[in-house]
Description:
The strands form four sheets. A three-stranded parallel β-sheet has the order 1-3-5, with no helix packed on it. A two-stranded parallel sheet has the order 2-4. Strands 6-7 form a two-stranded antiparallel ribbon. Helices cover 0% and strands 22% of the residues. β8 and β9 (161-168) form a beta hairpin. The protein contains no helices and nine strands.
Amino acid sequence: PFFLKNCIVWGTANSIGINAGGSLSVGNSTVMGGLPVGATNLGGNLTTNPLFVNAADADGADNIFGTSDDGLHLQVCSPAANSGSNTFIPSGLTTDFANNPRIYNSGTVDMGAYELQTTSPIPAVFAMTGGGSYCTGGAGVAIGLSNSETGVTYQLKNGAADVGSPVSGTT
């Protein structure tokens, strides 16, 4: 049997396969394209982009894996942060691939080899001002943010794509 626990398998176009007579169990892992046919789902799995710092440069600028500049560290807003399962951590394993504490911040391990070593920001809720209806091809609708921070520019996103122009904070 083969197990994937607290892992990230991304950028592979789901090249995970199960050989005849083999078995695969997956738990609290991010798998691009989802679990392969025949895999046992142990729960807690994701199929969303794990948001690596820079997947194109996995070993970072120093070209050495296991260091602080590695591109496979998670971004603060990663869905894989604090989404692992502490019960899947092997006994005696206390550090991540970069020799940082394996559990940091929330008390819950991250998915993947690198533990995020920063505090995740608390999502902010702002009241939208302006509004109205919008139709495809129309001129759009002006909006603003009340109770937002001055000196900060906010950008509405649809996935990774910017929508509209940046908006400056108001208070």
